[in-house]
Structure formats: C-alpha cells, structure tokens
Amino acid sequence: MLILIQLLIAVGITAFLSLMLVVAEMLFANYGECEIDINKGEKKLKVKGGSSLLSSLAENNIFIPSACGGRGSCGFCKLKVVDGGGPLLPTEKPFLSPAEIKDNVRLSCQVKVKNDLRIQVPEELFAIKQFKARVKKIENYTYDIKGLTFELLEPDSIHFKAGQYMQLSTVKYGKVKQSVSRAYSISSNPNNPKDLQLIIRRVPDGICTTWVHDYLKENDEVKLTGPFGDFYIRDTDNDIVFIAGGSGKAPIKSMIENLYDAGCERKMTYFFGARAVKDLYLTDYLKSYEDKLKEFTYVPILSSPEKDDNWQGRTGFIMPHFGEFIKHPAQTEAYLCGSPGMINAVSKGLTDMGVPEDQIYYDSF
Questions:
Q1: Of 85, 112, 237, 361, which has the fewest Cβ atoms less than 10 A away?
Q2: pTM above the 0.70 mark?
Q3: Phi and psi dihedrals of 169, rounded to 5?
C-alpha cells in the first residue's frame, strides 16, 4: 500500500512539473523571428517563432498533408528537417521508419519553430491551394452520412486525381472556440472542376463531423485545402476490385465516374460492406453503372441485416465472396477504403488468394 501511495505521489509530481513547463513556455518563451529555409534557399520564410512547423508553413500558403489536423495522430505531415528541428519526440517515433529517422524525416506538426530551420518540401506540395467555397447542396444519404456539394469560389476550379482528398476547415461553433481541419475524400468526378463533393459520416463527439451534421447549412462559405494523396487508379490492364464501407464510398465513386468518362473497358467489381439496409446508400446509382460500363459489377454485402430488412442479397464478411468474382488474382489490383482493421483483414484475404501485395492500394481512415 505504501509503495502504491509513493508511486501515485511521484506520478502526480511529474505531471505537475510537466504542466508547469508547458505553462511557463506559453507565458515566457519568446523565440522572436525565425527563418525557414526551404529546398536549399529556393524559398525563405520569415515567421514568428513558437508555432508548429506545419502551421507556420500553412500561414505562408504551403500546405502539408495532415489528415488529423495537426494532432500528431495520422503521420501524414512528414518533412525532411535538415537542421534546427530539435530532438525527435516520442510522439513521432511510431510513425517513422528507421530509415526515415536516419534521414531526418519529422512530423511537421510536432516540430516547433524555436530557431532558424532548414527543411525540404516535395515540389508537388507547392501546387496545393486553399479554396473558398459555398455549400451548394447537403443531402442525407443515411442516418449518419451526409453528401455535400461545394461550389468553388476562389479559386473557382480545381485539378485533382480521382481518389485524392481535401482538408475541410471548421469555424467556431457552440463550445468549440477554434477552427480545426479534417481530411475527407473527394467523391465527385475530376471532369467537373467547378464543384466539389464530399461524403462525411458522423463521428460521435467529432469536432468537424458535428459541425457538418448539426451546424453547417446550404449557402454557408467554407475553406477547403488540397488536393492531397496518392490513392488513385494505376494505368494498367489489370482487373480492378474496389472494396469500401461507410463513407469510404467517396473516392471509389469518384474513380468509377472518371473511369466511365475515360471509356475504360477493364473488368471491375465493387464490394461495399455495411451492417444493415439502413447503412446502404447510392445503391441504385452505382448499380446503374452495370449498364454503362462493359464489365462492372456492384456487390453490396450486409454483415448483420435486421429482421425487417427483407434482405435477399449477400451476407457475412466480404472475403468469402472474393472467389466468385476474382478469377485472375495475379492480374488483379485492388483499391480499398475504410478503417485500418477492415483494410488489414481484406488485404490478407486478397494476398491469400494470390493478389500481389504491391497491387493492393488503400486509403485508411
């Protein structure tokens, strides 16, 4: 009992000292003006010290991918910090490989600008823009999924690849006193550059999804940043398997619309997993592509249909249904969008039947 009390006291003292250090830094630290040297002097920024590298770059219209809005939980905002980044933090290590650590790769949301920095930014990221847009239409797809259509105002058009994503920024609402950004896949066709569509599922207590579902209205103006991501269709002759669940339908919808416009004749099968009929949406719309595309099949599968659903379709997990549709595994590539657990299970099912691992592409959220 005495040991437990001593342990609790030690933990309490440590927590208190850590809090005091944070407060002291907030109140007294003044890092002054710092310089960020990008790509060996190609661009130099003068910024006020104290903010994260991620936010300092964003303030200067250099937008680094960040699906979590800078919370250090996605690992997308990697940059090479050549000099001045300080020691690697424990919050970064889980997202970095030994080779990346050796090469001075850091999470830009975790690097604080305290002094001059030298960094490297991939050239393609300079093309990412922030867009002002108007909410043109809000549709209720299910009880917890909305479809949003935005009219782009400034700039008034966008170029992206089907499968990429945008970051949507909230405004202050209710008890939320600061803006946050979250990543959502684009669900619209790249051939319509004036409008942009997203599919957003409510996350309980999610700051951004609560704003979207409960506060955002048609004609409201919002900020979108992007496009980001390397989840897109590869230009091959392989058969295609799409697998998604929930709001993971967004990038797959964009891909299918784009492939239709391109006159694609590759064999395509789209498995969509849901719990019950109430979780299905855009079913008739996607079924219509079976008549538009030469070899396309839409396969909705319910894991737990309710008694009143009167569901006559396929049930259970998605993997047992692969054999009916995937006839040439070695010549098949798969595009997955969903939770990490779903992606891990489905990827194993695909590789077990002979789909090469390097032909499985995914967007995890």
A1: 237
A2: yes
A3: -100, 135
What DSSP string runs through 14-66? HHHHHHHHHHHHHHH----EEEEEETTTTEEEEEETTSBHHHHHHTTT-----
For residue 362, the one-letter residue type is Y
| Residue whose structure tokens are 């905002």 | 77
Q: Which structural domain range is residue 95 located in? A: 31-125
> Which two three-digit tokens encode residue 335?
């595009």
Amino acid at position 290, single letter: E
pLDDT in tens, 59-86: 898 989 887 777 788 888 999 999 999 9
Domain shared by 195 and 165, yes or no? yes
Strand partners, 81: 119
Chain Cα centroid distance, residue 197: 15
Task: For residue 203, count other CB atoms closer than 10 A to its CB.
Answer: 15
* Residue 3 resides in a domain: no
pLDDT of residue 6: 53
Pairing of strands 145-154, 129-140: antiparallel
CA separation for the pair 65, 80 (Å, rounded): 14
* Size of the chain, expressed as the number of residues it contains: 365
Residue 25 has pLDDT above 60, yes or no: no
Query: What's the domain count of the chain?
Result: 3
